[in-house]
Design a protein that fits this description.
Three copies of one chain form a homotrimer. Chain A has 139 residues and is of the alpha+beta class. Chain A has three helices and eight strands, in the order ββαββααββββ. Chains in contact: A-B, A-C, B-C.
């Protein structure tokens, strides 16, 4: 049994949905030491989020952004508007997509399905770099 | 402390929301060995999902499907349409509901509330069998 | 390595979104014993939920409630209406926000970002006290 924790930073990205599976896996080589376990990937922000979805077509990621903007619009009865029109929608979008992923580890690798990849959803116009805390447990 | 991992298959189901608590628990009898722990239930697909909700009335599950179809419609400004009109909505719905559940284990059983059950949400018209990877940890 | 489980109760709150980080952390002082680990916080209900979001402005929490009511409306093609007009929307809202949080523990504390706090989302008009089961693991 082992536990380890790793703070990593993802560089600033434009507003939208980005595939970051390889980047994240590459930053925690300690994954390889676990035969079976869990990777908990946590974003320490409230206006960007993590989800799992289709890893092949950029169209899917663009359609995520389009849907999110249509159903969590900037034009709405918001009261929290001080930080810009993209701020309050970003908080709701982050809650819908989620602030963490728990992923199975098998044989030293993330045991994702063939078509699954990790999405970083940047909901702000200028979100800046994003800090993630990754907790590995297993044996 | 123990870790174990179990790959199970849920047979093909029609598009809609299905209660699968007993089926899943029945396929991982190793649950009984854990006095306290966590069950991580992971679906290895991006157009079906897992969530927890009311385990009694079939009306609730039907209303889930109705709401999902209304707010993630097939008629929309999608660009990813090659795989059919049910495909892109399925990806968004899967992200909203989630691709995994982490559930507490107490005394060898899933420690769900009285009214909680596991929903398999099949978002495709013909999704086929669905593969789940279950990771148990605890003592 | 240690595992522990703690059942706690949050008192009845009005419909809306409530910040409960300190209350929850205060009820599980066992957090302090873990140098590195995970806290799994699970709500045993299907019409209230847990999510993580901005911990400073009450406006953000009010805007969450406004958005949820607009996009999961009481006036809709619901079939499950026996338990009141707030019931079926509560089930959908609970699935969107989620029934559990898995949070990293570092140095005996929840390792949240500066602006992150735990929201209890009460989706019923009269939800009553809410029961949570917290599972701690780590070393």
């Amino acid at each position: 049994m082992s536990w380890s924790q790793h703070e990593i930073t993802l560089e600033a990205r434009p507003r939208g949905v980005h595939l970051v599976t390889s980047e994240i896996a590459g930053k925690v080589p300690q994954l390889r030491d676990l035969r079976v376990g869990l990777a908990h990937i946590f974003i320490r922000h409230t206006s960007a989020s993590l989800t799992l979805n289709e890893n092949a077509s950029p169209d899917v990621r663009r359609d995520f952004e389009t849907w999110l903007n249509a159903y969590v619009p900037e034009e709405f009865a918001w009261t929290h508007t001080l930080e810009g029109s993209d701020d309050m929608p970003a908080h709701i979008k982050a809650a819908l997509m989620g602030s963490s992923l728990t992923l199975p580890i098998s044989g030293g690798r993330l045991a994702l399905g063939t078509w699954q990849g990790i999405y970083l959803c940047e909901h702000r116009d200028r979100g800046g770099p994003r800090s993630l805390l990754i907790t590995l447990s297993g044996e």
